[in-house]
Amino acid sequence: MISDLQATISLVESGWRNAKVLVVGDVMLDKYIWGEVERISPEAPVPVVRAAWQDEKPGGAANVAMNLAGLGSCVTLCGFGGGDLEQERLESLLADAGVEPLLTTVTGLPTTTKLRILADNQQILRLDREAPIAYYSAAYEELLKHALKVLPDFSVVVLSDYAKGVLTEEVCQALVAEARRFNVPVLVDPKNPSFTRYRGATVICPNRKELSAATGGPSLDLDRLLAAGQAMLPSLGMKIMAVTLGEKGIAVLRPHSLLYAPAVVRQVYDVSGAGDTVIAVLALAMACGVEMEAAVQVANIAAGIVVSKVGTVAIQQGELLGALSRETTVSVDEKLLPLDRLLSRVACWRSAGQHVVFTNGCFDILHVGHITLLEEARRKGDRLIVALNSDSSVRRVKGLPRPIVGQCERAKILAALSAVDAVVIFDESTPLKLIAAIRPEVLVKGGDYTEENVIGAREVRAWGGRVELIPLVKGVSTTRLIAKSVVSATTTPARSVVAV
């Protein structure tokens, strides 16, 4: 369980405080052809795939950048491209996602490309196109020139090594040295069996197989393997090693401590890119000052989301928020939201396939009629937002002496109801601006309205939503309660008070 889940949710909602991340590594373009297999080829004992559609996505270090952008951070990506159509397509996909591609073009060598052919969610074949030889020295000089120039402007650096030739020892050490000079943490996703090229980095994130190759320890004996990883840290000049263990979760190793963060159980369809998601979350957490022991628990949740999909798929902010929100019951104060945070939460609900219900009112002196309305409204969808008139708005609509109860008290009382998922206060006379911003699937009002008189009804119907009118509880209203209390106060005889 994440120790301060509400703080974590707020951090994700903020886009990790717009942390700036520099990613350097092996970029590639992942291509997919999806189809069906119905027969074996008469020419050779291989399946015949009847192609139905195809797709392209950034892969390798570019997928790390996509995960970071999907979580709301500002990302710049450095790597090599071939000056070909694949580089153009890769840069276009990155730019569309909000990633700044700062790729060095290496003429004569192709952009690394992986073509996967799939049928019935199973990979049939993979074709790789990549540089067969080392890159030119001038290319490394150009890449370092770009990366070192911008590095001081970033909160954290990620070195994403896919063993395609970008992260040589010279490149790694130059970047680590510059990062240390400006106190910028460096996280490494390693592929080289010798971790010495990454020495001086802040955190290294190998998987079980990579740690086994680096230590020479047996991958099946986990205790010995992790102990060997711990023993490496001082010689590498590193503080932390976060070892991804697949279905066992993540182990956080420090020189004198070890913590297991168990994996979040999900249906696994494809583990491609799960490590990219983990290091993206850890990088953002480090940029925001979150302890690694807490960060890996969030990373486990994020990885659980991406492995439930086929192909290389980056995590999205709304998906992570949806998964985190299922871990806890939201407190009263967490239901009281300004519009910007409310819109983030709505995006998270929608990413989980949930429908939003909206209603509004003054809710001055909450009574059984209000409770009935809200409970019925909640049944019309998955999440209920209540828009509450501010005190000044109530005075314009109802006149003095309303409201009887102040807006802060009214909002907290509403938020305490289990039927209510969020409360937002508005100062206008009508909630039309809120409705247009939130775009609820269902708009609810009381049965004393007709659909033609409901503010926002026309707009909601225009985007495919619907309006629901809930019958009122007869004989109950705030006006009657106020009148009754006034009558009671004027007719009750005064009692004598005797001092004792």
How is this structure best described in words?
With 500 residues, the protein is an alpha/beta fold. It folds into two domains: 5-325, 3-Layer(aba) Sandwich (UDP-N-acetylmuramoyl-L-alanine:D-glutamate ligase); 332-486, Rossmann fold (3-Layer(aba) Sandwich). It has 18 helices and 18 strands. The protein has helices at residues 5-13, 61-70, 85-96, 137-150, 169-181, 208-215, 222-236, 274-287, 292-306, 317-325, 332-335, 339-351, 368-378, 391-398, 407-415, 432-438, 457-462, 478-491, and strands spanning 20-25, 27-40, 47-60, 74-81, 99-105, 113-119, 122-129, 156-160, 186-189, 203-204, 240-244, 250-254, 257-261, 356-361, 383-389, 422-426, 442-446, 466-470. It has a nine-stranded mixed β-sheet, with helices on both faces.
Indicate the topology.
Elements lengths: L4 H9 L6 E6 L1 E14 L6 E14 H10 L3 E8 L3 H12 L2 E7 L7 E7 L2 E8 L7 H14 L5 E5 L8 H13 L4 E4 L13 E2 L3 H8 L6 H15 L3 E5 L5 E5 L2 E5 L12 H14 L4 H15 L10 H9 L6 H4 L3 H13 L4 E6 L6 H11 L4 E7 L1 H8 L8 H9 L6 E5 L5 H7 L3 E5 L10 H6 L3 E5 L7 H14 L9
Parallel strand pairs: 1-4, 1-8, 2-6, 4-5, 8-9, 9-10, 10-11, 14-15, 14-17, 15-16, 17-18
Antiparallel strand pairs: 2-3, 6-7, 11-12, 12-13
Helix pairs in contact: 1-10, 2-8, 4-5, 6-7, 8-9, 9-10, 10-12
